[in-house]
Amino acid sequence: MTALYLDADACPVREEAFRVAARLQLHTHVVSNGARGILLPESPLIHRVIVTEGADVADDWIADRITAADVCVTQDIPLAARCLEKGARALNAKGHRWTLENIGNALAGRAVAEHLRSTGARTGGPSGMTPADRSRFLSELDTLLRAAMRPAPPSLRVPPGGF
Fold first, then answer.
1. Longest C-alpha distance within the chain, in Å?
2. CA angle, 22 as apex, 19 and 23 as ends, to 5°?
3. CA end-to-end span of the chain, whole Å?
4. pLDDT in tens, 88-145
5. Which NCBIfam families match (predicted)?
6. In terms of DSSP bridges, do strands 3-7 and 71-73 run parallel, antiparallel, or are they unpaired?
7. Where are the domains of the chain?
8. CA nearest 75: which of 125, 3, 40, 119?
């Protein structure tokens, strides 16, 4: 059964995700490391998961539980890669789908940016959310969740051992 996982601490599209998941009647796991202030709709399908503080603890919780039938919303590129390795689908808050074809370049770009920051270079940050970003997110999330709810053909499954 398909579930939605939200990497929730810095997720600007929680409300949109809740609406889509409610319409499709999907279990949604809202994973954070202590942000009890995140308001959740009253629903037996929404599950708050608060993990301990620490680097990648929320990511580990999601990656340990996500399956090929699930979708993860995250801004974290390494978490998206881990989800893809398990055959799951991943999407960022601006509606960009992470795929086996584009995740490698994203990981490499992230590594370059980290290196530049470690040398003192300013790399800037992401641009702010626009109404077009939110609309694209809603459309892509609906598409990914509906696709996840259908069984995947064997040719689309990630081979054992990942990428």
1. 48
2. 85
3. 25
4. 999 999 999 999 888 877 778 777 777 677 788 776 767 789 999 999 999 999 999 9
5. PRK00124.1
6. parallel
7. 3-149
8. 125
Burial of 144 (0-12, 13-18, 19+ CB in 10 A): buried
Measured CA to CA, the distance from residue 126 to residue 139 in angstroms comes to 21
pLDDT of residue 71 exceeding 90: yes
Strands 46-50 and 27-32: parallel
**C-alpha to C-alpha distances, 100 to 23, 144, 159, nearest whole angstrom:** 28, 15, 11
- Is pTM beyond 0.85? Reply is no
Residue 6 near residue 28, CB atoms below 8 Å: yes
pLDDT at 136: 97
Statement: 3-149 belongs to CATH 3.40.50: yes
Residue with tokens 């390795």: 85
